[in-house]
Amino acid sequence: MKVEEEVFCLRRRDLEDLFGGALPQGVFAGPEPERILVLPQHFLPRSQAEQNPAFKQLIPYQLFAFRQRFFVYQRGGGVGEGRLAGRLSVGFGGHINREDAGGDLLSAAAYEAALRRERVEELVNAEAVAGDFLGWINDDASPVGRVHLGAVHLGRLDSERACRALGIRADGEDIHPQGWWSAAEIRAEGESFEQWALLAVALAESGR
User: Is position 1 within any domain?
Assistant: First the structure.
């Protein structure tokens, strides 16, 4: 019998104590991801975590930009999170699981390794892209957002050659590249994008 994945979670009330009150909605600045790792850590079966808003699943969420344009893709019907199928996105994110932590507590180094793992699983030629932590996404208005907390990282490409080389891994998840879009183009098609993507782009724009 297949063993269910156990995903990394933090209790909502512990996060609220650290952030100084109820978690803000939308995008906001806050402590670096390393600082929240000192909170009590939990690994819950994913089926339980997806239904329990008392916990937040930590999702490293990374987007890639070059000259004020963002790499956009579309999720196909075979993506792991079926509630997002068909949506456009800029963000590559995934759960952190017990294996990422080596069966122990999740360290800062293990978090960074999980961030890199997600790149390698979904993209080609993204391993060496320099990235910056931008802030947080929290969107309790949707069933998906209610149980997730996004740590947003921006990968900055340094040349047109790097842009042409960046691509979707053929044996990865069911996602399809849509090219490089400006923030204005993304906002104009906002109804087609997942909410986290719109929030992440707004966060990236505010930091410029």
Answer: no
15 within a domain of the structure (yes/no) = yes
86 in any annotated domain: yes
Residue 122 is part of a domain; what is its CATH number? 3.90.79.10
* pTM greater than the 0.70 cutoff: yes
When divided into structural domains, the chain yields a total of 1
Domain assignment present for 52 = yes
Domain span holding position 200: 6-206
DSSP code string of 83-152: GGTT-EES-EE---BTTTTTTSPPPHHHHHHHHHHHHHHHEES-TT-EEEEEEEEE-TTSHHHHTEEEEE
Each residue's pLDDT tens digit in the chain (208 positions)? 567 899 999 999 999 999 889 999 999 988 999 999 999 999 999 999 999 999 999 999 999 999 999 999 998 865 455 566 678 999 998 899 999 988 789 999 999 999 988 888 889 988 778 789 999 999 999 888 899 999 999 999 989 999 999 999 888 778 889 999 999 999 999 999 999 999 999 999 886 5
